[in-house]
């Protein structure tokens, strides 16, 4: 592992700021109590785990009016206020949604749900192009991608990842397939800073340090992870992977911001302390194939995912070295990025699957060592068709090739998950503890 500092004084400033802000951020996160959302018995193409006490429902579906192959969503992120949500992907567009308004609309629609179901059958319309649309079904809980977007930013390249800048709702940083890390102004829809040090290779992941609005990291196919500060176009720190293997994911520890986890294509996850970045603090070796994601669950636990179809929970404090204490393997992931997200307050892990399903696992549910049986997952959610039409406008081969491509938990006291797939369908799910 080779570390190449770009600007020594700049790196010292970054480390000092990270250390001073990490404790404040951790204190804020500890003062929250989980309060489940109101219960609704309606379910949509879901399978609950046999031993789970959580019940989920779809609160909103956002999808393109016409299905396009280029609508694959590769990344989903909520801003720090949990009022806005952004998506990015193959369509070269950053779409921003007012998620609070969408969910408020869903709650109002629930009041008329029972009456609508009584006379929904037979109410059919055709749009201008002859596509069948059920007028009530289209109106309830389902939104058109273009019409429901608060803002749409057209990017020059396909987007692989994006993240909101902390404490600054109007700025989004994204990584693209051309190796560029760009900060965008949502209001003005223009790039603020463009950073091009990855040699034209895909940037697979971007992340911000908790409590720090000007320190971010990017992980790339060129085998480097680069730490950036403020509006600088040159990186302050470069970490190189062994044998120049691609870095697939980078994430700061949200509770301290001095630890940085890097998932590598060599199947290992390297955890660095930015106060001493020369060598990794831990090298986590367990996955049989490329490690695709790494997410901190808390100070002592890290969740990693791989294209060997496994998710591992690591105990970083285990003596004499970190070890896997739990693993999940109900989902299928052997080729693509399918997303990984953790809900720290509820200790849940969400991921996508190449079966066009989103999975939710409960940490501590007994998935130790090998994924167990059905009791290991809390939820298995099947995506519905991307078409507004009730008739099938796509072949079964296409449906079978679809995959759940991105997931993201809302980091607040509710159990709210955004899940997206390769057909451009985005669904907001809510969970309730104690449901049946």
From TrEMBL:
Keywords: Repeat, WD repeat. Residues 106-137 are annotated as: Disordered. It holds the Pfam family WD40. SMART domains: WD40 (SM00320). Residues 114-129 have a biased composition (Acidic residues). GO terms for biological process: response to UV-B. This is Uncharacterized protein. It comes from Selaginella moellendorffii (Spikemoss). The lineage of its organism: Eukaryota, Viridiplantae, Streptophyta, Embryophyta, Tracheophyta.
């Amino acid at each position: 592992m080779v570390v190449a500092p770009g600007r020594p004084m700049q790196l010292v400033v970054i480390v000092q700021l990270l250390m001073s802000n990490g404790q404040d951020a951790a204190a804020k996160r500890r003062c929250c109590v989980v309060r489940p959302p109101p219960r609704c018995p309606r379910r949509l193409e879901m399978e609950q785990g046999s031993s789970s006490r959580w019940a989920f429902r779809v609160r909103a579906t956002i999808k393109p009016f016409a299905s396009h192959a280029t609508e694959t969503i590769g990344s989903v992120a909520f801003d720090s206020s949990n009022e806005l949500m952004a998506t990015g992907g193959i369509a070269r567009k950053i779409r921003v949604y007012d998620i609070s308004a969408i969910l408020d609309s869903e709650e109002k629609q629930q009041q008329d749900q029972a009456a609508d179901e009584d006379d929904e059958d037979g109410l059919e319309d055709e749009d201008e192009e002859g596509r069948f649309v059920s007028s009530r079904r289209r109106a309830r809980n389902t939104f058109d991608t273009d019409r429901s977007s608060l803002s749409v930013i057209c990017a020059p390249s396909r987007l692989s990842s994006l993240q909101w800048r902390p404490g600054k709702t109007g700025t989004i940083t994204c990584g693209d397939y051309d190796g560029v890390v760009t900060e965008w102004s949502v209001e003005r829809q223009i790039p603020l800073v463009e950073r091009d040090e990855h040699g034209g290779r895909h940037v697979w992941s971007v992340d911000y340090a908790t409590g720090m609005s000007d320190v971010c990291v990017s992980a790339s196919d060129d085998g480097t992870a680069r730490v950036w500060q403020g509006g600088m176009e040159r990186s302050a720190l470069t970490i190189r992977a062994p044998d120049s293997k691609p870095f697939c994911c980078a994430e700061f520890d949200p509770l301290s911001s001095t630890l940085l986890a890097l998932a590598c294509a060599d199947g290992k996850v390297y955890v660095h302390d930015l106060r001493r970045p020369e060598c990794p603090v831990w090298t986590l070796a367990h996955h049989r194939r490329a490690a695709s994601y790494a997410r901190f669950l808390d100070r002592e636990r890290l969740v990693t995912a791989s294209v060997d179809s496994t998710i591992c929970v690591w105990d970083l404090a285990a003596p004499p070295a970190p070890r896997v204490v739990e693993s999940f393997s109900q989902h299928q992931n052997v080729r693509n990025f399918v997303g990984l997200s953790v809900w720290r307050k509820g200790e849940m892990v969400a991921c996508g699957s190449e079966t066009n399903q989103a999975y939710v696992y409960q940490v501590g549910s007994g998935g130790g060592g090998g994924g167990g049986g059905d009791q290991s997952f809390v939820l298995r959610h099947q995506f519905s068709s991307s078409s507004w039409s009730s008739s099938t406008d796509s072949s079964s081969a296409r449906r079978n090739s679809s995959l759940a491509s991105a997931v993201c938990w809302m980091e607040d006291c509710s159990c709210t998950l955004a899940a997206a797939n390769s057909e451009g369908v985005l669904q907001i799910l809510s969970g309730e503890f104690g449901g049946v």
